[in-house]
Amino acid sequence: MPAPLARDERARLIKVAKRRAAKHWPNKDGRCPACNLKDCEPFQTAQRFLEAYSEPPDPILKA
Ligand SMILES: [Zn+2]
Fold first, then answer.
1. Is 17 inside a domain boundary?
2. What gap in Å lies between CA 36 and CA 24, rounded to an integer?
3. CB-hemisphere CA count at 13 Å for 60?
4. What is the domain extent for residue 28?
5. Helices 41-53 & 7-23, crossing angle to 10 degrees?
6. How far does the centroid of ligand 1 lie from the alpha carbon of residue 6, in Å?
7. What is the Cα–Cα distance from 28 to 48, expressed in whole angstroms?
8. Ligand 1 centroid to 7 CA: how many Å?
9. CA 53 to ligand 1 centroid distance, Å
């Protein structure tokens, strides 16, 4: 279980994580358009955060 976060703080961080995931969403050759990397750390971090904290899990992450 992730550590508890205040509800407002969690909502804010989820919004930031979704925005970040959308910005760093891999294009069709698997590269992040912002970083031009295959293993984009901001994207992976945002995804991991959303898996842990988004409630209910929201599959619509791409903007
Ligand atoms: Zn990236």
1. yes
2. 9
3. 1
4. 7-53
5. 140
6. 28
7. 21
8. 27
9. 21
Distance from residue 39's CA to the centre of ligand 1 (Å): 8
Please report, as a single letter, which amino acid is at residue 33.
Answer: P
pLDDT tens over the chain, length 63 residues: 667 778 888 889 999 999 999 999 999 999 999 999 999 999 999 999 998 887 665 555 554
Any domain includes 33:
yes
Separation of CA 38 and ligand 1 centre (Å): 8
Output DSSP code: residue 34: T
Does residue 63 fall inside a structural domain?
Answer: no
29 within 8 A of 37, measured Cβ to Cβ: no
Residue of 42, 23, 44 whose CA lies nearest to 34:
23
Domain count of the fold of the chain = 1
How many Å lie between the centroid of ligand 1 and the Cα of residue 45? Answer: 10
